[in-house]
Amino acid sequence: MNRVYVCSCFGITEQQVKQHADSGACSPRKLASACKAGTDCGSCVKRIQALLGRTATPVTQPAAAQLAATEEPMAEAA
């Protein structure tokens, strides 16, 4: 059996990510709650997002820029 690991820290495979997604863990946060994938070193988060179909920003963008792109802009003080 050929296993493709997504999260080396917790030994989570692509197949396990897909199984958790089919069971309702359809976001990186829900997946992390289900199996801890993405909660240690974080190097697998982009791959998890891709597997879940949630890559809204380019992979080459720094993490801070990705976070800023997903947050709603704050209203300016008058």
Structure description:
Keywords: 2Fe-2S, Electron transport, Iron, Iron-sulfur, Metal-binding, Transport. Belongs to the Bfd family. The protein has 78 residues and is mainly alpha-helical. The protein has one domain (5-70): BFD-like [2Fe-2S]-binding domain (Arc Repressor Mutant, subunit A), CATH 1.10.10. The protein is built from four helices and two strands, in the order E-E-H-H-H-H. The protein has helices at 14-22, 28-35, 45-51, 63-70; strands spanning 5-7, 12-13. The protein has a two-stranded antiparallel sheet. Strand 1 and strand 2 form a beta hairpin. The longest helix has 9 residues, at 14-22. It starts with a strand and ends in an 8-residue tail after the last helix. Residues 56-61 have low confidence and may be disordered.
Query: What would you call the shape?
Result: globular
Number of strands: 2
Mean pLDDT: 79
Oligomer: single chain
Q: What is the N-to-C order of secondary-structure elements (H for helix, E for strand)?
A: EEHHHH
Helix content: 40-55%
H/I helix tally: 4
- Largest beta-sheet characterization: 2 strands, antiparallel
Report the CATH superfamily. Answer: BFD-like [2Fe-2S]-binding domain
Q: Report the CATH architecture.
A: Orthogonal Bundle
How do the strands of the widest beta sheet line up side by side?
1-2
Output the structural class.
mainly alpha
Q: What is the CATH C-level name? A: Mainly Alpha
Number of domains: 1
Which topology does CATH recognise? Arc Repressor Mutant, subunit A
Rounded to the nearest angstrom, the radius of gyration is 15 Å
